[in-house]
Amino acid sequence: MTEATLGALDKAKLRRLNFHVLGPLLALIVLIILGAMLNPNFLSYGNVTNVLARSAFIGIIAVGMTFVITAGGIDLSVGSMAAFVAGVMILFMNSLIPYMGIGIPLIMAGMAVAIITGFAAGWMNGFLISKVNIEAFIVTLGSMGIYRSLVTWLADGGTLSLDFELRSLYRPVYYDGLLGVSWPIIVFAIVAILGELVMRHTAFGRHCAAIGANEQVARYSAVKVDRARMATYVLLGMLVGVATIMYVPRLGSASGSTGVLWELEAIAAVIIGGTVLKGGYGRVWGTVVGVLILSLIDNILNLASIVSPYLNGAIQGVIVILAVVLQRENKSAD
Amino acid sequence: MTEATLGALDKAKLRRLNFHVLGPLLALIVLIILGAMLNPNFLSYGNVTNVLARSAFIGIIAVGMTFVITAGGIDLSVGSMAAFVAGVMILFMNSLIPYMGIGIPLIMAGMAVAIITGFAAGWMNGFLISKVNIEAFIVTLGSMGIYRSLVTWLADGGTLSLDFELRSLYRPVYYDGLLGVSWPIIVFAIVAILGELVMRHTAFGRHCAAIGANEQVARYSAVKVDRARMATYVLLGMLVGVATIMYVPRLGSASGSTGVLWELEAIAAVIIGGTVLKGGYGRVWGTVVGVLILSLIDNILNLASIVSPYLNGAIQGVIVILAVVLQRENKSAD
Amino acid sequence: QDDTKTIGVAIPSATHGFMGGLNYHAQETIKRLEETYPQLDFVLATAGNAGKMVNDIEDMVATRDIDALVVLPFESEPLTSPVKAVADQGIWVTVVDRGLSQPGIEDLYVAGDNPGFGRMAGEYFRENLDEGDNIVVLRGIPTTLDNERVEAFTAAIEGSGINVLDMQHGNWNRDDAFNVMQDFLSKYDDIDAVWAADDDMAIGVMEAIAQAGREDEMWVVGGAGMKEIIKRIMDGDPQLPVNVTYPPAQISTAIELTALGLVSDAPVTGRFIIGSQLVTPENAEQFYFPDSPF
Amino acid sequence: MTDAVLSLDGVSHRFGTIQVLFDVDFGLRPGEVHALIGENGAGKSTMMKILGGYLEPSEGNVLLDGQPVRFTSLRDAEAAGIIMIHQEFNLALQLTVEENIFLGREIWRGPLLDHKAMQAQSRTLLERLNCPLDPSKKVSEISVPSRQMVEIAKALGRNARILIMDEPTAVLTNRETDVLLEQIERLRAAGTAILYTSHKLDEVKRIADRVTVLRDGHRVLQADASQLTEHSMAEAMVGRELSGLFPAKATPQDETVLEVEGLTVPGHVKDASFKLRRGEVLGFAGLVGSGRTELMEGIVGLRPSTGLVRVGGKVLKPGSVQAARQAGLVYLTEDRKEKGLLLGKSLRENLTLLALDRFTGVTIDSRAEERALSRAIEEFDIRAGDRRMMAGNLSGGNQQKLLLAKTMLAEPDIVIIDEPTRGIDIGTKQQIYGFISRLAAQGKSVIVISSELPEVIGLASRVVVMASGRIAGEVEGAKITEDAILRLAMGLSERRAEAV
Ligand SMILES: Nc1ncnc2c1ncn2[C@@H]1O[C@H](COP(=O)(O)OP(=O)(O)OP(=O)(O)O)[C@@H](O)[C@H]1O
Ligand SMILES: Nc1ncnc2c1ncn2[C@@H]1O[C@H](COP(=O)(O)OP(=O)(O)OP(=O)(O)O)[C@@H](O)[C@H]1O
Ligand SMILES: O[C@@H]1[C@@H](O)[C@H](O)OC[C@H]1O
Ligand SMILES: [Mg+2]
Ligand SMILES: [Mg+2]
């Protein structure tokens, strides 16, 4: 092969690659420009902070979902799981006030409970899927109903609220931050960076992609398929715990309506970001872009009030489809 | 291989097959026995008719969904599509009363509109998925938002109602029947039988499975892949139209909350019935069993006030998972 | 044994604060009445959509042989003829809150007053704001009921010179309301008051205002009388001057009256409209029920 | 001289910018068997796909009956009577044998499919190939060789005027190959034009009328088969002198490194016991379905099994591929497409998947991976246009080399190679044989399963023969002859034939 042809090849590859890679980024940039044009406050510190901080819950969960989907799975239960974890956390913290008093230790304990509950919930899903070998869609559809129902039951149909004083102490975890960057944003960023690292640069990430691409090949290559698959659900469960830790200080409450449809948003963010729904290929940074796209659509619709609010959903739908058109692979290329 | 081992092998295969095949049926039978034990009226003509007739909407849609999933696709938009089709149908019929008068022709025209609208909606999904080549999950997530939003907008945030007199004329299409079997049951049965026939005994059914199993192989075998894939969405859209024709006389109205979560129920029914979520294998009769299982769970929960209504969702979830445990394939066998 | 009567109760499931409260009151009332009247049986079903509610009602008739039905229609239109079918079988029907779209089906109607709810809030805005003041509105889930409230509210402030800057759906949900309010705050520099139309939404709204540090700039009126909100009115929170009631306990009234109709010879028919009331710091105490989940 | 039915006129082809065919002229005549041979990656499959209507050439024309054609869909090609058997399997695994055979040309009776007719025709086709498979079995449940027979049946059933077969015999045993060649002769007699690729030059010599040789995308030779010997064909392909194919056999040491005792894989293998010594190349022979693959998969923990496996004297934890790998025991699958390689992933990711732990501290050292890839490309002569390409875009033979490289990267002490040279050209075969024998000389032990008897005979110092899921016997040293092996393999298989 001559040098010249290699160069040309590189360019062709690059072009194709770039579309696929840059698609979601491009959509994001278009949205940002649109937002800035529609409203001068769009790029204000306040609005940017709001949007990023709000994205954190879904974002943190979607990072975990990226692993699950890459490994060929799906998890419909994350929204109810978040509600359930929040409920358990609040009940636990309230009930420990008499013993531990209101203070940092109690909040730390609450956080630990959130992670542990998330871990357990994810473990349960993972166990049924990878050991008992039930279709992930069904397991998590089932557990979605179970967690949602349990939190409603725990709250007696109403809302579980964190003790008022305790809440005041905990509140800064959502509203304050470091050097002007609020905590949820920081945590989301850390989770995303770690996630990208794990996906791209560790054996676990490789194994997830291998399992999603062809489980048989993974098995024949001495990959511990069950364990890795299980780990994706456990990781996701723990990240649901982390998301909840950020969520509870925001409004200090949890109810049957907490986290409704988060699963759909998280999955959508993952797919918009370029991860393949049937597994085999995933990218965490894409997911982050996907999450931001979804949050921005809402934000822009609120800021612009262009049309009947009844049509917000339609505009959302159109934008989501358009965002993905940009990154579609050219079919004839294969 | 000696005769003995061959025989053993065959038996093992048979057992595995049977479990896989009989799993959902078994679950259904268990539920029926449970229901009959809980309440003597469970097997009454009235209750059986109720349960079957109300299964018809999801059932008819789920038959179409079986084809979509078998061919490796997914459709999240069917619930909102049903709402949208119902809305369009109602508006259309109401607006034609001055011209056509209230009578059978108007109802027939309304039915035609429902099928045509469903056809168009399905065609749109199919076009974006198979021609523009966008991930089915995203397309139908987008169109789910679009249809839902459009019906809310058409109804001005409220409810679209069929003209009262017209409604009385149309009502028997849900509530009456032939020889004591109500129309929705008859239509559901016809759709299911035709669906099973098409899936099992036509080239289209085979092509769907082939596309879902390995698109490249299908293409290389001169299967018109795009056309077949498109056809699955169009078929599903038309069946949504048929389901709507049965739905409108029942409730006489459509609103933003019509058909919420039908997509999830339809997909769940398909998977419970043994169709493979990633495509390549589907069975319509299994879907029918899946739909019945889901309906019966609700019905049985209403038969006996066993627990707090808050926990209904949890019980549902557990039963769904259990129903599928029965048919899980033995992993080590592969 | 023969004079055992069964009452079916069909209500929407506890998907948000108000409905949570309503579910709570329904269960409490049933428990209480089952103790008082051993000859009464109750069947409670909760539904997440209109279709499921129709199913529940069908099941009650077909398998539980109910003698009376208490129903809070998920939506008016789709529930009308199924409930009518029940009434036509001679079963006693009590309708709660959201009326049916055809008059005369039910034997008893117990409801809050949605237009009144909106009007009362609107009148308060009219009296307490000046011409040229700016407000934003958070609406509920797109429904007829929400439309009625918003129409009445709009009518009440008409001609007052109050500017409605924006209306968006907060879906009676805390998180959605929080997001929408955050964006309103980014978008508008001058907001004098917020009509949140529901106390769950009011909570999200107040949190967003607090985050922006604009508590002194505007006050908020929610609705339905959630205990936390009532408490703050009682305590004289300047940000929450008043509230408009829409009591979830109306379901108790409905079930009780129905039960009474079945056990006594004098059935209670007619319409009981539980008008919305304005909760002020002065009268707040009588609306405070610390044990209710709402 | 008869006119060509299908020909290429000045055809060049590029993937991206890598040119793989250079100005090729070619003509296929009715009633001839034309062999297309060349090294791995020479461009044979590419050329066949162009002829079959699966690829459009970058330059030049395809002529059908002398007229330039451009097929817009595969249906058109099929309608013109052109049928192709692909090198890589072209079957939908979840579908049954019959469904695959009739995919895209189902038989109808009235409005519905005629299952009976399709079942019967499938049976007939398979019988013609001497392959008594149940047509209602799912393809995922049948063995690799059987899949190839299904593929052939699928093509035969389409009544071709022009039949293009890309390495149809790579996965077949001699016996099945014979059946296939008979069929080819029958078709030739009926006037079908047949284009045929194989790396088994004896076959080519036996069946071909004419031979075309491709080297690096250039047509370097076209001649009547009668004018060529196996040796001259090989030389034309490789472009250099080829000496003896097999290296000298190493002598095994006394130490037993692997001991299998009473291993049973339910449904496939019954009570198998054997030993493997250090530095030994142990051959495994047997007919298709004799259970060799399943036995090995049982040993390394890929299939549930009962019985004992000792590695270096220590009992191996059953059912764990990881345990086997840790004990230095690795298995290379015969099914490279479904079990061996991730076709959609890069060469690098494939290469290191099995031995990823060797490249991983906290994170994966991708530069070390790149170095490993360079070494593998060198050592196994993997010809990739671009080292960042997907494994699935490698030519068939090069995929096999990548799979070998992947397995060897795990540095096993004992390696079980199932069909090591499937689809590999003669020059590379020689390299691989050399490689196996060097492994043994280094004190590693190798089990070679091969359906090519010469391979087993040329490499192994001892051969275990399986029949019907049992070990039928074993031959050693000078007693390793084709005759001895076949007698062991057939004796029991005759009995099975009666039983079935
Ligand atoms: N889709 C593709 N994209 C990029 N390169 C390809 C593609 N298909 C084939 N190639 C390259 O084209 C060259 C020729 O491949 P081809 O499959 O025709 O070889 P072959 O002669 O059939 O080899 P083998 O004997 O190994 O089957 C190889 O270098 C291969 O990597
Ligand atoms: N002629 C046949 N009839 C029925 N089943 C067969 C036949 N040939 C193969 N099989 C199936 O294939 C399996 C055997 O696999 P396989 O052919 O891989 O064995 P093998 O001895 O390793 O042969 P090979 O070396 O060709 O791979 C058996 O489980 C059997 O079900
Ligand atoms: O659900 C509604 C509730 O949220 C609102 O506040 O009051 C009316 C109810 O129907
Ligand atoms: Mg090839
Ligand atoms: Mg084998």
Automatic annotation (TrEMBL), chains A, B:
Pfam families: BPD_transp_2. It is a multi-pass membrane protein. InterPro entries: ABC_transp_permease (IPR001851). Its main location: membrane. The chain crosses the membrane at residues 21-39, 51-69, 76-97, 103-124, 136-155, 175-198, 230-248, 260-277, 284-301, 307-326. Keywords: Cell membrane, Membrane, Plasmid, Transmembrane, Transmembrane helix. This is Ribose import permease protein RbsC. The lineage of its organism: Bacteria, Pseudomonadati, Pseudomonadota, Alphaproteobacteria, Hyphomicrobiales.
From TrEMBL, chain D:
Pfam families: ABC_tran. This is Xylose import ATP-binding protein XylG. It comes from Nitratireductor thuwali. The keyword ATP-binding applies. Residues 6-241, 252-493 form the ABC transporter domain. Keywords: ATP-binding, Nucleotide-binding, Plasmid, Repeat, Sugar transport, Transport. GO terms for molecular function: ATP binding. Belongs to the ABC transporter superfamily. The keyword Cell membrane does not apply.
